[in-house]
Write a structure and sequence with these properties.
By secondary structure, the chain is mainly alpha-helical. The protein has one domain. Helices cover 72% and strands 0% of the residues. The chain contains 3 helices and no strands. α2 runs antiparallel to α3. It is globular, with a radius of gyration of 10 Å.
Length: 57
């Protein structure tokens, strides 16, 4: 996903959600982590990361 450089956490979160629905877990997690870097206190993003990590196991 190096071609995509959003600067809004919500954009990264939304992209992660779409990728997760397409079963592209690694890319979704990468997008969520980018979102968290942009907005480290956002609980929705933290929850999405935790859920994705649980689903990957």
């Amino acid at each position: 996903m190096s071609y995509f450089h959003p600067k809004e956490a919500s954009t990264c979160l939304n992209l992660g959600n779409k990728l997760a629905k397409l079963d592209r877990s690694d890319e979704a997690l990468e997008s969520y982590q980018k979102a968290l870097a942009l907005d480290p206190d956002n609980k929705k993003i933290q929850d999405a990361i935790n859920t994705m990590k649980e689903n990957i196991k």
